[in-house]
Q: What sequence folds into this?
């Protein structure tokens, strides 16, 4: 016998998924639509080093104990959100501790870091066969 509860049960399972999906997609649209603020890369490098970002992310944002930040950082709004409300082990940088202008400067520094050369562009590595990655 079909009851109201058996008919609505699948719908009740789908609604939280749809709500979560709409929030995630909506956040992605607003983050990508936000314009990158203009920052000073020279000052950003000074701030990056002075505030200790390099201790986890390396002096050029290549990563280490923390994730890689350069040469292609997150969109500015996601970058700022990670500073204000970190998802992992990282200090919290409130707007009082690190104003938006400082964040923009650090972001400009990360954008200024050039992409490294590929193995094919490095003379010593040209012609060296690359072993295939073993299947796990």
A:
């Amino acid at each position: 016998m079909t009851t109201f509860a058996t008919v609505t049960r699948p719908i009740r399972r789908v609604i939280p998924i749809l709500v979560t999906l709409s929030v995630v997609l909506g956040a992605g649209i607003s983050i990508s639509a936000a314009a990158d603020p203009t920052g000073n890369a020279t000052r950003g490098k000074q701030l990056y080093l002075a505030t200790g970002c390099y201790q986890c992310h390396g002096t050029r944002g290549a990563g280490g104990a923390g994730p890689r930040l350069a040469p292609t950082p997150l969109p500015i709004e996601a970058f700022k959100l990670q500073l204000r409300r970190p998802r992992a082990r990282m200090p919290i940088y409130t707007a009082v501790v690190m104003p938006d202008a400082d964040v923009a400067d650090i972001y400009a520094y990360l954008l200024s870091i050039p992409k490294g050369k590929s193995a094919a562009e490095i003379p010593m590595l040209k012609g060296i066969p690359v072993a295939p990655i073993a299947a796990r």
